[in-house]
Amino acid sequence: MSSIITVYSLMITIFIYLFTIAISKKYPSPFTTPVFLSTVLIIGVLYLSHITYSQYSIAKEIITELLGPATVALAVPLYKNRRIFFQHLKPALLGIILGTSLTIASAEIIGKMMHFSNEFLISLSIKSITIPVASEVSNIIGGNEYLVAAFVMITGMFGAMFGPLILNLCKINHPLSRGLAIGTISHGIGTAEAVKEGEIQGAVSGVAMGVAAVFTSICIPNILPLIL
Fold it and tell me: SS3 for 142?
């Protein structure tokens, strides 16, 4: 029975994702972004099918295993466009460091203004790094793993849905700048959206995601105790 549920869950996940890609192309909107729309539809289908998260988790783990090769594959467009990246290496690194620092600082300032608990503030501080890294950093700084996962997902989802729109409104059109902004703030989920814009955006977003994760994992355990 469990194997049937796993196969069913895999097929539903793949079908819904392909469906949402088609919908997003025909009706482009932040709310038809595949990552967002497919998440909503999958939750709905699982609920109607009376499939619990623990039953679905086997299929989820199979799909998650593909994230490794998919992430490594981002190196291909980066290699193709390496000259463009290295031409802008200094401003790119400065942008990642400043962007990462500002997103941490703004989250903590807003959290303190709203009188959030220390556990909430700690978990909120690592919302812009990818979940595998955020989970490890959370164990070091004493964050709540469930809050961390929720904040990381919400941040990535928001970036994927509204990041390109905000960049358009700000008239930021350079592919390298767009990739840096999305990858720095919205990690892997945003990078999946950046890849759709072009090779340069996707490759640079992947690099930004990695550098931001390294920078955050080094700084947060040392700086956060001083802030709190």
Answer: coil
